[in-house]
Amino acid sequence: MLATLNKYRAVFSVGLQSNLVYRVNFAIRGFFSFFHLIVVFILWSAAYTGSSVIGGFNFAQTFTYFVALIVVQFMIGAFNEDYQISEDIRNGLINQFLLKPVNYFAYRFSIYLSARLVTGLLILLPVIISYPLLKDYLVLPVDLWRLGIGLPALVMSALIQFGIAYCFGLMSFWFLEIQGLVILSMALESVLGGQIFPLDLMPEWLFKISQYLPYYYQMYFPVAIFTGRLNDPAAALNGLVIQAGWVVVILALGQLLWRRGLRLHTAVGG
Amino acid sequence: MDSLAHYARLWFTSARYSIMRTLMFRGDFFVWALVELFWMGVNLLMVSVIYQHTATVAGWTKYEMMLLVGTSMLIQRFLMGFFWSSIFEMGRNIRSGHFDFYLAQPGNVMFTATTRKIDPDSLINSLVATSVVIYSARQLGLHPGALDLALYVLLIACGVIIHYSMLVLCIAPAFWITSVQGIEGSYFTLSEFSRLPRQAFHGLANMAFVWILPVVVVSNAPASILLHGFDLQIVGWLLAITVIWFTLAVVIFHRGLRRYSSASS
Question: What value does the mean pLDDT take over residues A143-148?
């Protein structure tokens, strides 16, 4: 047990180091997010000139939502895990995992964790620095239940994020090119995951449906709990149950794809 | 005149090659066309969701905003269709040294390197963007005259040239700093601004994105011609910045070209 843990701790620390090496990439991502936030600020402040309350929330509450979304994205979002897995398969790098007592899922997940630890901590820097500028537009509700339900929701969101990327990566067993598929699903994710607008602004029926889809639990759910868009503890608990269901489904799907895919896989070269 | 015919012939040869490639990979064509269609849908959905909760954004009504978003998509589709793949690959080629290939070609390097590939999927989707513009114009009850339409087309062409120049300028740093990747993305971040109405910008943001960088004007100018008719100031402004940005791109590109030292062995 301890030996197993040590194995993946080594992977984790290698991942940590390689992420610190590529800090320029992080800086670029952070820079883009900052500009995206400017777009959000300009668009929504213009929308709020037409009406001071939108969907029951004022401008600061909506802006807080978008800031929290970016922070959470750097904490748990799967950036290019699907691409890396796909490359491993196409280049035959996974062959080495078939010969060694290393579980590929655990290996990838350890790297994902170390990468998110680095980006998750680094994103706090620009937030802290720009806090004096932003503080008039940031409002966070403080209730204990938000922490109690929000934290497990955040952990499960991370599992869903990684699980979906893992499944997409494994598609490379069947398809040569997954980039198109990934971007297509990204478009779906960005809408139903709440990145374009807070989901509660959608028409009621669409919002209801979205709560049964995995996208809702990728990021929106914990963010909505923390930023006060979701204010009913009972509804939040209910969401937690659905989310747990999706975690199980997605991880099981990942296992299934891995087993089926390996049967198709032909290891070439050494 | 001869050289113009020469470049037209070069362009048609590359275009024919690109179309043949597309016909070979029909599945890819279909997926990418769908991807773009979907993203356009996302933008329109955002507009309609916001307008469910408010009547105006910076003084723009729903269909005025749709017209703006459609115009911005139209420019972007043309850019993607005619230049994106070539310019994107240019960055990679400069880093890897494969750029040598273009230096040996008959013609201006900037022309051959930035027009080598066209993407028919984006060009198809420009029809969708056009329908968005037409639909919005009809909802608004607009009846633009022939002159207004001609001006709209002219300003769209200017917009494509400006975006082309910005994209070249985003990639050109690769001549100096070969290690930085992902700078291509900076262009997309900038283009996000082009879907916003000019009146929404105040203070510092107005200075940066309306006056210094042309991202906002590029889409707002043609849209305002359709919405409010001919305005000498707007047309003159756009024509002037088209010349400025294109010149800047040409100068910087050729400066960079002199720095290019070929990385291949």
Answer: 92
Give the CB-side neighbour count of residue B37, counting CA atoms within 13 A.
12
> Which chain A residue has the Cα nearest residue B181?
A25
Nearest partner of A11 among A77, A83, A102, judged by Cα? A102
B264 in a domain, yes or no? Answer: no
Residue B265 placed within a domain? no
For residue B2, the Cα-to-chain-centroid distance in whole angstroms is 28
Structural domain that includes position B203:
2-259
Q: Are A192 and A199 in contact (CB under 8 A)?
A: yes
Look up tokens 């990468």; give the residue. A115
Cβ pair A35:B46 closer than 8 A:
no
Residue predicted with more confidence, A156 or B178:
A156
Asked if residue A193 lies in contact with residue A215, where contact means CB atoms within 8 angstroms, the answer is yes
What local confidence, expressed as pLDDT, does residue A270 receive? 45
- Rounding to the nearest 10 degrees, give the CA dihedral for residues B65, B240, B244, B115: 60
Q: Which residues contact B188 (CB under 8 A, 6 or more apart)?
A: none
Which chain A residues are within 8 Å of B45, Cβ to Cβ? 191, 196
Whether the per-residue pLDDT at A37 is higher than 80: the answer is: yes
pTM of the prediction? 0.86
CB-CB under 8 Å, A28 with B35: no
